[in-house]
Design brief:
The complex is a heterodimer. In chain A, about 90% of the residues lie in helices and about 0% in strands. Chain A is mainly alpha-helical. Chain A has a single domain, classed as Growth Hormone, Chain: A, CATH 1.20.1250. In chain A, helix 1 runs antiparallel to helix 5, helix 2 packs parallel to helix 5 and helix 5 packs across helix 6. Chain A is elongated and about 75 Å long. Chain B has one domain: Rossmann fold. Chain B contains ten helices and twelve strands. In chain B, the strands form two sheets. Chain B has an eight-stranded mixed β-sheet with strand order 7-6-5-8-9-11-10-12, with helices on both faces. A four-stranded antiparallel β-sheet of chain B has the order 1-2-3-4. Chain B starts with a helix and ends in a 5-residue tail after the last helix. Classes of the chains: A mainly alpha, B alpha/beta. Chains A and B meet through helix 1 and helix 7 of A and helix 5 of B.
Chain lengths: ~230, ~325
């Protein structure tokens, strides 16, 4: 009897830890989205000029568009039973994209410039090609996070509010830290390191999901074995 | 209760006092450059034009600062009111007879206007990002466009990239980089990659002249970047202002000693009847200037220009 209750609190603690981890992942994604957005303007300026409003407009526009698509996709994916694995894979792909990005900034922007597109359409297209995919993938995180946190329908609003508030707060921090301090470092290196962190997060999620699946399998085995021996 | 009222009254009066004081400071600064005669908010700047007697000043950005972008004397257009416009002629010491020049940054248009005055056959291209600026230069600063002197509304870097892709690539004998104001510095016009593009449109015997600020760490970083791209770089350091000119000669253009610069200045002075003293400019040459050993080359990847500018050095 006593053993059982301690097991129960252990489970509750583990659940709490898991919830905190999910919220932290959503926060990390909020941070990286804004970091990438601020750096995006720096990435494009050498090719499309500092017609500040044009380049900034293109970058912000592309981010909003990709996030919108990401939210939709994330909402749809969150209903799958293996949503956790999908989350991990999405983060890994986004991370890999960021790690590779520094190597294709120049060829992409040069080619677009050579086509003869002006700073408006050129910067928009470049922003879409470079930042569209990773931002979309990062956008899928929030809906999945809400799904993973929610066990009762009545909590869904609260969980949505929590995830949105904290990840947006992290976006705010990412914004300021990038604009004020990270610009002192190599832009390419910053993007690469961010990509590596994202990929590591994704890998951790996948690993955790695999371990959990293994545990469930093992438990099921145990149960069937016990039933068999009986 | 009484105490509280007293406190509120005290706070209010001090607020009013501070406000009035700031007003007076504003007036005092504006007084030194005259009355505000024109104001325009463009996409890029808050543009203000001030007039004091015959002196007209152009200001971008903060109104209560003493930094002016351009200044002219209406009664004598040949007079260089600001040291840097006179100093920007230093490129002529290296290339005394230019045919084509490129100026990035129009402002009041003093540099291209004066260049064309002394060299009437000169073909001049000016690149200005702000579409409002040319009209203001024409209205208040006696700037005129003609078949030889053209203003292009574009980002300097994109303009040069486009030139590089035309066939044949047009070459300039003199390239003057002056697209900065004291508040905002476009990083993409200072990097190694940008200067490499500039080098691509520079004639082999031509020179690049860049207007920079002298006493901060950005100066060292720029000097280092110029050296990385052009191998050679000399500087003319202002006496009355915090400005300096970095001069990077093309492959076959010379580097000068102060003596050579002075001799060339005297020749130019006589030949073109310059209305200002070119030897003063020549004397400002620092032929063997070297960057701080800790300075780093500015690249598209890393160019914390505004941060470096805030770091004063005691030179």
């Amino acid at each position: 009897m006593e053993q059982r209750s301690s097991k129960k609190t252990g489970g509750a603690n583990r659940r709490k830890l898991r919830d905190v981890a999910i919220v932290l992942i959503a926060c990390a994604c909020g941070w990286f989205v804004m970091e990438l957005e601020i750096l995006g303007v720096r990435v494009l300026a050498p090719y499309f000029g500092s017609a500040v409003y044009v380049v900034t407009g293109s970058v912000i526009g592309v981010f909003l568009l990709s996030l919108s698509a990401g939210y939709m996709l994330g909402g749809w994916l969150s209903r799958k039973t293996n949503n956790k694995q999908i989350l991990g894979i999405n983060l890994m792909v986004a991370g890999a994209w960021l790690c590779a990005m520094p190597f294709f900034i120049e060829p992409v922007c040069d080619r677009i410039f050579n086509i003869g597109l002006d700073e408006k359409w050129g910067s928009l297209l470049a922003a879409l090609i470079l930042f569209g995919t990773p931002t979309l993938l990062l956008g899928t995180v929030s809906p999945t996070a809400v799904r993973l946190l929610t066990t009762r329908a009545s909590d869904s609003g609260l969980n949505t509010g929590l995830v949105l508030a904290l990840s947006t707060l992290a976006s705010f921090a990412g914004c300021l830290v990038t604009a004020f301090y990270l610009v002192l470092f190599s832009m390419r290196l910053t993007i690469c390191v961010s990509g590596a962190v994202l990929a590591a997060l994704g890998a951790t999620i996948l690993l955790q999901a695999a371990v959990q699946a293994g545990r469930v399998l093992y438990q099921n085995d145990e149960v069937t074995r016990k039933e068999g021996s009986r | 209760m009484k105490n509280r009222i007293l406190k509120v009254v005290l706070i209010l009066t001090s607020c009013v006092a501070v406000f009035l004081q700031s007003l007076f400071i504003g007036v005092a600064i504006a007084d030194s450059i005259g009355q505000l005669i024109y104001k325009k908010n463009s996409l890029y700047h808050r543009i203000s034009v001030y007039q004091y007697a015959t002196i007209v000043s152009l200001q971008f950005g903060r109104q209560q600062s003493v930094d002016v972008q351009s200044q002219i004397d209406m009664s004598n257009l040949r007079r260089h009111m600001l040291e840097y416009t006179r100093m920007s002629f230093c490129g002529l010491l290296y290339k005394p007879q230019p045919n084509r020049i490129l100026v990035l940054g129009l402002g009041g248009g003093v540099i291209p206007r004066e260049m064309q005055y002394y060299f009437p056959s000169l073909e001049t291209h000016v690149v200005e990002i702000d579409p409002e600026v040319p009209a203001i230069a024409k209205k208040f600063f006696s700037f005129r466009e003609n078949d030889k002197l053209k203003v292009h509304i574009a980002d300097g870097r994109m303009f040069i990239k486009k030139q590089l892709r035309s066939d044949p690539v047009p070459k300039y004998d003199l390239i003057i980089l002056d697209a900065f104001n004291s508040d905002y510095i476009p990083f993409h016009l200072m990097t190694k990659e940008f200067l490499t593009e500039v080098k691509g449109v520079l004639a082999e015997d031509g020179v690049v002249v860049a207007n920079v600020f002298y006493s901060n760490r950005l100066f060292d970083a720029e000097l280092k970047t110029f050296l990385a791209v052009f191998d050679r770089c000399q500087a003319f350091v202002g006496i009355d202002s915090g400005n300096a000119m970095l001069v990077a000669p093309g492959k076959t253009a010379p580097t000068l000693t102060v003596k050579e610069a002075l001799a060339q200045a005297k020749i130019l002075q006589q030949k073109h009847k310059l209305a200002f003293d070119m030897t003063t400019v020549a004397k400002q040459l620092k032929p063997d200037i070297l960057p701080d050993p800790n300075a780093k080359v500015l690249t598209d990847d890393r160019a914390p220009v505004n941060w470096l500018k805030e770091q004063e050095t005691n030179k």
